[in-house]
Amino acid sequence: MARDAGKIYALSTVCTHLGCTPNWLESDNKFKCPCHGSGFYKTGINFEGPAPRPLERFKITLDDDGEIVVDKTRKFQQEKGEWRDPESYITV
Ligand code: FES
């Protein structure tokens, strides 16, 4: 789960290179993949290493009690313009 510019979104932690699990590095303010060194900003955008595209985001909604619900069966890809879909984030 990450927050940026008034939005909360749920990032997939599957590297878009070969599928390893990037770790959040608080001191560097980025996700770093341990396999081949791809780096991703908090938004999920790739900026270093071999990853060809950003991390994916999952569907995120609030239930009737105001609890955050993440639906991992529904993915949104930045390069397809899907991050503009209102189901890919919660506004805060
Ligand atoms: S699997 Fe993440 S950089 Fe290769």
Task: Give a written overview of the molecule.
- There is one protein chain.
- With 92 residues, the chain is mostly beta strands.
- It has one domain: Rieske Iron-sulfur Protein (3-layer Sandwich), CATH 2.102.10.
- Helix content is 0%, strand content 39%.
- It has no helices and nine strands.
- The strands form two sheets. Strands 1, 2, 7, 8 and 9 form a five-stranded antiparallel β-sheet that branches.
- The two termini are 13 Å apart.
- 22% of the residues are buried.
- Bound molecules: FE2/S2 (inorganic) cluster.
Spell out the key features of this protein.
92 residues, mainly beta, five-stranded antiparallel sheet, 9 strands, 39% strand, binds FE2/S2 (inorganic) cluster
Mean pLDDT: 96
Q: Give the biggest sheet.
A: 5 strands, antiparallel
Structural class: mainly beta
What is the assembly state of the chains in this entry?
single chain
Over the alpha carbons, how many angstroms does the gyration radius reach?
A: 13 Å
Total domains: 1
Q: How many strands in all?
A: 9
CATH class: Mainly Beta
Question: What ligands can be seen in this structure?
Answer: FE2/S2 (inorganic) cluster
Query: The CATH topology is what?
Result: Rieske Iron-sulfur Protein
